[in-house]
Amino acid sequence: MSLTKKITYNTAVHTFGKFFASALGVIFIGLLARYLGTEGYGHFTTIYAYLFFFAIIGDLGLYLITINELGRAGVDVKKIYSNIFTMRFVSGVILMLVACGLIWMFPYPLLVKIGTLIISISVLLQMGDQILVALFQKEMQTKFAAFAEIIGKIFILGLVILAVNLNWSFYAILWIISIGVALHFLINLFFAHRLLNFKFAFDKEIWQNILKKSWPIATYMVFSMIYFKADTIILSLYHSAETVGLYGAPYKILEALIAFPAIFMGLVSPHLSAAFSKNNLEDFKRIFQKAFDGLSLIVWPMIFGTIALSSPIIYFIVGKAFSASATILQILIIATGIIFLAHLSTFAVVAINKQKSMMKYYIFAAVLAFVLYFIFIPKYSFWAAGIITIIVELFILIVSWGMVKKTLNFKTNFLISFKSLLASFVMFIILYFSNFNLLISVILGGFVYISLIYMLGILDKKLITSFFER
């Protein structure tokens, strides 16, 4: 099987699993939002925003390092992976303990503080699971990750339905989530051991070498977390739990969507690294262009379709109590589209070993976001949070894209992206002035978009077959 075909197949498998699991997750969020209401869901959102801030610090940049290190020629995969997995476990335990200690210093209600202790278990396991998925991506065996995620989500959703019907407590639901994540992690751990018999390992030289490579990525992750999650935390400090809940509902949709480019680039990135390490710049440019074309075909209809259907989407997922979230979703979907494309350029920056050069821009973006959040969120609430997110993500996209272009001196072909934009805009006009229910609107939008990109010559035989050949 050719390289491009493997990437396409594994992206399809993992995306299907992620899509199915995300669909279950959306149902879960819908049930939870309706059951907890805007205030309860606001507490739920605050817990996750707080803990994931520490999770990113504990990440140490190991996910990207794992993908790139395992893709390099001549490495002892078992030895490297065993040490990286141990590093992730140790950093995860330390940071979750710190998070659980510091939560008592924040002015949150007891419900949030105890909930943080419970959910810290699931966040720790998710940190470990990310490294397992990196192994699956390297071995092109993402079907295992898809299977584990689906089983875990089915387990969580089933018990949450039971909890809602039996009127269980907020804490009980949090325990259900932690147990479900544990099941997901153990399934992935089982399959990962079948692929590679790794174990806990501490090789001082390897740890030092990995940390030398990962600290720029880790620093980037920390600062990116400031402008990606700090908005929710700052919002929770200045506004009510209801306000946080209204912002958290569409934010969860954003988080579900950005799983796709992470999966896609997790598969593409090792091959970008391999091409660059072999000084095969033509291969690098070809893979980069194909990735950009593929992402463009998804980004534009996602943005325009969501803007047109934001109200029925929110009503369908979380109910009319969250009606104010529809406009927030329109703002955040633009940020989501930018993040999709930024995944390509930021992963490429790591592949060409320019992450240190990007550091000053990540720091500037984080500081800018942090300052703007504190200036505008107290007065303009979630409107400021969403708009500032767009500004900062766009800055990162422009800078990282420019760095890749400057380093490799190549031009990107925007023809397919432009045609996708045009088709998506026409689809938006039709959906905006139609008055169908959500299901019919989605089907209509999909039909219009696919028909238009076919008429514009995007879906020709040459393009389709290019994803199945080297």
Summarize the SSE layout with pairings.
Blueprint: H1 3-59, H2 62-70, H3 77-102, H4 110-138, H5 143-165, H6 170-195, H7 204-238, H8 241-257, H9 259-277, H10 281-308, H11 310-318, H12 325-351, H13 355-408, H14 415-433, H15 438-455, H16 461-466
Helix pairs in contact: 1-3, 1-4, 1-5, 1-7, 1-8, 1-9, 2-3, 2-4, 2-9, 3-4, 4-6, 5-6, 7-13, 8-12, 9-10, 9-12, 10-12, 10-14, 11-12, 12-13, 14-15
Structure characterization notes:
With 470 residues, this protein is an all-alpha fold. The protein has one domain (3-413). The protein is built from 16 helices and no strands. The termini are close together. The mean pLDDT is 83.
Outline: globular
| Domains (count) | 1
Strand content: under 5%
- Mean pLDDT rating: 83
Radius of gyration: 22 Å
Largest sheet: none
List keywords for this structure.
mainly alpha; 470 residues; 16 helices
Summarize the structure.
The chain has 16 helices and no strands.
